[in-house]
Amino acid sequence: MESDGIALGSRGGLRDRLALYGAQCSVFFRGFLEHPRMVGSIIPSSRFTVRSMLAPVDWGSCRLFVEYGPGIGTFCRPVLEKLRGDGMLIVIDTNPIYIEYLQKTIRDKRFRAVLGSAADVEQIVRDHGFDHADYVLSGLPFSTLPAGVAPAIAAATHRVLRPGGAFLVYQFTAACREYMRPHFARIDAGFEWLNILPCKLFWGWKTADEGEPVAA
Ligand SMILES: C[S@@+](CC[C@H](N)C(=O)[O-])C[C@H]1O[C@@H](n2cnc3c(N)ncnc32)[C@H](O)[C@@H]1O
User: Fold this and answer.
1) pLDDT digits (tens, 9 = 90+) for 135-161
2) Three-class secondary structure of residue 101 per DSSP
3) Which of 67, 83, 89, 153 sits at 20 to 30 Å (Cα–Cα) from 117?
4) Contacting residues for 178 by C-beta, under 8 A, at least 6 apart
5) Which keywords describe this protein according to UniProt (predicted)?
6) Where do the domains of the chain lie, and which CATH numbers do they carry?
7) Residues with CB under 6 A from ligand 1
8) φ, ψ dihedrals at 56, nearest 5°
9) 65-110, pLDDT tens digit by residue?
10) Are 44 and 27 spatial neighbours (Cβ–Cβ below 8 Å)?
11) C-alpha R_g of the chain
12) Sign of the dihedral through C-alpha 125, 128, 129, 134
């Protein structure tokens, strides 16, 4: 797989790696300046957050992995390194700066970058020929999204997941858990100190016998 002109998995020199990281941070920061409340952070997630967040994923059973809010692709590259050869990674972001950057820099036949809202995940998954996703990862700033968007995304995510699949969420606050709770009977929680800022991690599991929740 190629990315940013550097073959992933190769160990480029320190200067190359720093130059790449600097270029990625500058694209990320440009996206933040244009839409601060939608981006919610001035710096991409750390590799420690990526590793902790993805640790429970069963890659052997994952055909479709969906990511909301990929930014400059901090998670995309590690996900593609682990994803099956016949798998697909669909990323969805509302910011055209990020989608154009990802389309230009990640050249992998299993990768699709979609300009749109996570609230439309079901339609986007259908458009790519799938009924369900195995895992959905979110870096969305739930607490600063426009009113009504966060609960709509949590509900759509539960519907789009296959039984046994999971909603993986990282955030600076625990706000997302309130949106997950009506849909996911089991939510595991964790914390990653080695991130700017340290962040909370949640894994909402759609259990095999779970139907749609009954309205209160
Ligand atoms: C904190 S950034 C996450 C960046 C990246 N995932 C990382 O870990 O470094 C949040 C991202 O969510 C995107 N976003 C905000 N609202 C969205 C929505 N409704 N649907 C999809 N993406 C959205 C923003 O454009 C931004 O790329």
Assistant:
1) 999 999 988 889 999 999 999 999 999
2) helix
3) 83
4) none
5) Methyltransferase, Transferase
6) 11-205 (3.40.50.150)
7) 38-41, 44-45, 68-71, 74-75, 92-95, 98, 117-119, 139-141, 145, 149
8) -80, 0
9) 999 999 989 999 999 999 999 999 999 999 999 999 999 999 999 9
10) no
11) 16
12) negative
